[in-house]
Amino acid sequence: MDGVTTAFCAIQNSLHVGKNSILCHGDITQIVRCIRGIEIFAGFFNKRLLTCIFRVTMCETKASYETCSIVNLSAHDPSHSAASRTWRFNVTGFSLPVAMAFSTDAAARAQVPQISPNSGSAQAFVKRLIIQGVLNVLEQQGRAAGLPDFVIATILGQLGINVLYIPLSCPKVSVNPTNPINRAMMMITICVIYGNTVTTTCLGMGAPGAPPGGGARDMCMLNMPMDFTPIPPQHLSISGTLSTSNFIMANWSREMWQNVVNRVLRMITSGSFGTHFATAVVTVT
Q: Are the CB atoms for 82 and 250 separated by under 8 Å?
């Protein structure tokens, strides 16, 4: 047993998982590979020799390494460790896919099938986009480090992702307009959509924020930008938090998390909404 402890404690850059222990299964070769994969994933590259505490259990014979099936890792550096951490992120600079807007009007949804039917659906769309992106990137990172699937699942299970987004309401829509948009009798916002992107809004004469009735036109003229109202900035920003109770990710630096969300953004831009997020910027604080 001492030989196992000595061998494992000779490995630098180990980790502390606190109450959320990670189990490495298999024979001695598989266990060592698992530990080294965790080290790579953990990102402890400063060559610090951490305090090592290893507990080996479920051994048929204590003298035989091959029969050790589980290693409970609990190595730590008390002076440089954190048990949990929360980072904030913010995404800006993207154009608005119709799925991130919503309309409760049946006629509008018939014209734009991709538009969300309500605010909750639009928020759910954004949450799936971000959460799945983060999980995919971290899973890829774990596989690249050589971690077994069950270790990756443990790490991801200790991650909380909260996504906040305020969807744009589109009571009426004007799709690929080529003629002036009539707003004379409207008390609502008309979303102007080209392709699958909400580009701007034409406010009805009685809608909040609309131009005063005096000399204002009752049409939004396509060649008159001042007739249109830009999409409010709150609908062009996605924010949220990344929280973890896992020691590995709790001790990642801001730069490491920035790298993760940058990769998430690249993954999104390589998918169906690439044109919308091609100019987007994400920051971690």
A: yes
